[in-house]
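User: structure tokens for this one?
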Amino acid sequence: MAFLGSAVQRMVSAVRIPLSPLCRTTTHRSYSSEPTKEKSVPYEKTLKQDGSVSGPTKPLPRSADVVVIGGGSLGCQTIYHLAKMGMTNVVLLERDRLTAGTTWHTAGLLWQLRPSDVEVELLAHTRNVISKDLEEETGLHTGWIQNGGLFIASNKQRLDEYKRLMSLGKVYGIESYVLSPAETKDLYPLMNVDDLYGTLYVPKDGTMDPAGTCTTLTRAASARGATVIENCPVTGIQVRTDDLGVKKVKAVETPHGTIETPCVVNCAGVWASKLGEMAGVKVPLIAMHHAYVVTERIEGIQNMPNVRDHDASVYLRLQGDALSVGGYEQNPIFWDEVSDKFAFSLFDLDWDVFMQHIEGAVNRVPGLEQTGIKSTVCGPESFTADHKPLMGEAPEVRGFFLGCGFNSAGMMLGGGCGRELAHWIIHGRPEKDMYGYDIRRFHNSLTDNQRWIRERSHESYAKNYSVVFPFDEPLASRNMRKDPFHQVLTEQGCVFQERHGWERPGWFNKEAPAPVKDYDYYGAYDIKKNENYKYNELLGKEYTFDFPPHHDVGTRFLTGNKNYGRHNITTVMTAQPIKSECLSCRNGVAVFDMSYFGKFYLTGPDAKKAADWLFTADVNKKPGDAYYLAIGGGVAEHNWNHIRTVLQDQGFRCQLTDHSEDMGMISIQGPKSVPFVLHSKSKPGHLYLFPYLTL
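Assistant:
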């Protein structure tokens, strides 16, 4: 038996998986292609090693309104909510057994408070489904345990964050309390509170059982007419191209037959990217090892709340009379070669990677130092570039929906997201504001860029337990998209912000330039950590809930003449705090570099009809005229796909073209402004003047 405090240090560590080469790929938008060739797959039986016949647990229907692929938390929640909303001709396909892959080994924690009102609502629905609705519908207990949750604050900023969470919780009626160290000790006698500023206690947090939850969900769905089929892997997705060049889901292929369907829901977890490839859909997630250990029995731990020590990046989950200990490290192991045979398997735990969690756990509960380790659990999980799920209809194929990439939070978010996904499928949109989860939040040039996916997913994983500050910026995968003014602004000390892959001017450092450097993975994987990194130093000073330092630093505008193509642009130097800058814009004139905006052309015989349908403003022009659309950079991809969908559904004879990468954009604003100027970097001899619509 190993002990947490000493013996684990002597264990032999597993070999780390090396990083793949980091590379940037280029993508182009396309409206049509040849239809996908359909395959004819004969019905087959498969044999187990012992010679017995193995196949689908139920006969496959010839057709279905919706086929959900993946029998984990999201798949089961989605088919349950589809059936509950009245769709009965729906099928769930699981290649092995329910919970196979990632769900079966999840910790199953549910915390009700998150720094987002939408996520608080999603979590509340999950809790209602697991703790109340399912038991009322089926008479079965899902395995829900309400033992409470405790967030640890080891510094003032963390405690301030918890106070904000408590205030948000009050709006939604979530019971929570900020406790002093002494009160925390009374609640959790085994805890070391010497280094605490306080804690946030939520009595109605708890723990879910993956197997019990998924089994009960599918029984409830089946009772409403849904079909759940296990032991049925998917081998292909048939896609057809209609007369207008629009790609749509046609059917799902399996070794045991084909199901015709107009709608597929990808809930395949770690394997979602492979499933997406079958339909020509990009699914930007990456697989990593994610682990926890289960201790031997601990006297006095019974009925204690689950603990999240964010500053130590560790959690302690009550497991009967023992604890599960896990967390998020800065050097997670990537699973580059995802295996299709990994149903209920586990990896060997790399103790060199995991030891940092042991140290944090022992500091918080000192009694763990002499507690034995009963078992280790190291399985695959899928992670995304911003640590948020991938949901909604894929831009590439109509009828192909995503419900994957849940960053080890698929159980706690499953109920809320399953309901929203079902509503999305039935009504064409979710009930709640799900933009933060919508796959269309990512620009199409990034969703198959392996460098961006890997770097940003790593940074989001490593910072998962970090305080969420309003002025934080990523360090990973920067300088992916730059406008014509990037270099000259950098030379003048511009501190850039990242939006949708673009480097957007934020504010100016008057001391010296602060360029963004290549990502160093925080020094992990034997990559040399960036030294004398001015941008990172300035970013660290921005970590506050108050006015950031740059509020009083001031900004600067460029001086002298700069040659852009055949045009000299003369600018004036000013150095003034942001307050003065805002007043200058309100009362005079100011110049904004808005090149990160989306810049689209809407043309064709029905351009006016389309514009009248799309926009609330009066955009009356002569029939056939073109429209220029300037769209906020952060929502440009979402708007692109929305407009394209409207053109397809309404049958407008139009063409939508994207010139976001071809042109920069300068906006002159204020009561003394003139029409703004667009400068084309691909055609340096031209200056463009356009009226514009901001969406």
